[in-house]
Recover the amino acids of this structure.
């Protein structure tokens, strides 16, 4: 039996829509695989009741097919489904790594990224690699049509998950179809600043570089209390705040000594608008 811990991830980071991602040091899924004649999937943990166990409908079914690796698969969910923290991606990524090892397929971590992305497409409708890439490679990742690049980074973060539902499909529908030259120039500048910040493990540059005039403002409207929570986080010391993935989680970048205050401020601000939430004091890992 092979056991793999697959970390939660946060995609986009504001200015890097569908391109940037980071692995978080918590929460995580744990995937166990054992060789079998036919594939079965057992799911426990947070939100497991909402996830199909039929391999045709589960994120790991396509991974099994791509690796020709039938197995008895146990998934212990630590990452809530529909959280904006890469829940389906964590399971697909963990299964890809575990099955590659179980069957000695010999694929590199980078080669496993498109395979896991196909698995994710089963549930999200599109094969984005911006969550599976960091879950497999760790650190900060840049996923483009040309492939995936990753760098180690150490950045303190708070991921705050409200008890509301935002579907990725709905969150993609509100993304503007066009951008002005001014918005484009701002976004490119911010994305470049963020990438340099990650390479230097510099929270100031990462926080500044998360600002995004295009996608985040449209998606913020889907998250009850977004503006108040963002303001509260910044007053408590967050350098940058954005939507994590397609939401509803919000991601704040800060210095280590502000993490607890930022987490408390975000929870309080959600509570003020009647929304229960949970905060993870985490970091890029
Ligand atoms: N980049 C994707 C999005 C991540 O924001 O829609 C969610 O799958």
């Amino acid at each position: 039996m092979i056991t793999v811990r697959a970390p939660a991830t946060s995609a986009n980071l504001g200015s890097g829509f569908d391109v940037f991602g980071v692995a978080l040091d918590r929460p995580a899924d744990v995937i166990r695989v054992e060789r079998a004649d036919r594939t079965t999937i057992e799911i426990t943990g947070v939100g497991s009741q909402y996830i199909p166990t039929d391999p045709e409908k589960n994120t790991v079914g396509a991974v099994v097919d791509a690796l020709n690796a039938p197995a008895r698969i146990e998934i212990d969910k630590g990452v809530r489904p529909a959280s904006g923290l890469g829940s389906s991606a964590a399971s697909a990524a963990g299964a890809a790594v575990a099955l590659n090892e179980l069957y000695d397929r010999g694929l590199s971590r980078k080669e496993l990224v498109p395979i896991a992305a196909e698995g994710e497409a089963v549930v999200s409708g599109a094969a984005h690699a911006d969550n599976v890439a960091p879950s497999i490679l760790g650190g900060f990742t840049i996923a483009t049509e040309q492939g995936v690049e990753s760098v180690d980074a150490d950045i303190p973060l708070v991921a705050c998950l409200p008890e509301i539902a935002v579907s990725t499909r709905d969150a993609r529908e509100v993304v503007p179809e066009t951008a002005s030259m001014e918005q484009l120039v701002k976004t490119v500048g911010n994305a470049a600043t963020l990438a340099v910040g990650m390479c230097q493990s510099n929270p100031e540059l990462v926080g500044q570089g998360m600002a995004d005039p295009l996608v985040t403002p449209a998606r913020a409207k889907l998250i009850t209390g977004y503006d108040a929570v963002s303001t509260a986080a910044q007053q408590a010391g967050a350098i940058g705040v954005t939507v994590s993935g397609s939401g509803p989680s919000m991601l704040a970048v800060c210095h280590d000594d502000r993490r607890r205050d930022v987490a408390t401020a975000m929870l309080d601000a959600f509570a003020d608008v009647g929304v229960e939430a949970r905060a993870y004091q985490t970091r890029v890992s």
Observations:
- The longest helix spans residues 181-199.
- The radius of gyration is 18 Å.
- The first strand starts at residue 2 and ends at 11.
- The beta strands are 2-11, 20-35, 40-45, 71-77, 140-144, 147-151, 156-162, 240-243, 250-253, 277-283.
